[in-house]
Amino acid sequence: MVHPPRRITVLEVLRLSTGYLEEKGIESPRLTAEILLAHLLDCQRIDIYLWFDRPMEEHELATMRRYLRCRTDGIPVDYIIRKAEFYGLSLLVDPRVMIPRPETEVLVEKVLGLVEECTDGPNGREGFLFLDLGTGSGAISLAILNQLPGSHAVATDISLGALRVACANALALELSYRFRPILGDLYQPIRGHGRFDLIVSNPPYVSDGEIDSLP
Q: Is 14 found in the same domain as 77?
């Protein structure tokens, strides 16, 4: 009697993927492999270890190979899985937008602190209107809206593709009714709009640690 070949398991795929990424010089190879594999299996990273002996299907292996090729070609993990975590929110990201940086959460904290100082309790924040210049994925606006239920945002971006991503995120988070996207460069499309309680912006920048490595 001929037995079918043994299928490779989840844990074996994790081990082989980690080794491959390490060999290719990818930073944090184990973490990267865990994130990609968890996304593929639609589970949390911890579940990988609970499902360690689950056999992988051939189509799953093919997808994992594609993920690994993308990563070794220099594509960021967040673009591969089309998702980024920011201030407790899960956001759609793709090459139309910049990936939100973790340090940008400090800006959100500062805004929330200013609102706390300048308003008189939750009732004073009702109708709070702010402007987000260069919104990109909408990360900053949506994080603030999520924390301030009575607030509203006007968000501009020069890229139609970026605004489409931001709108998709607002819709997915059920915040679209308080998020108004406007196509245009910085202040240009909102001239004559009226007053805002606050203006926020976090345009693309090069960090101090990256300057020396630029050509």
A: yes
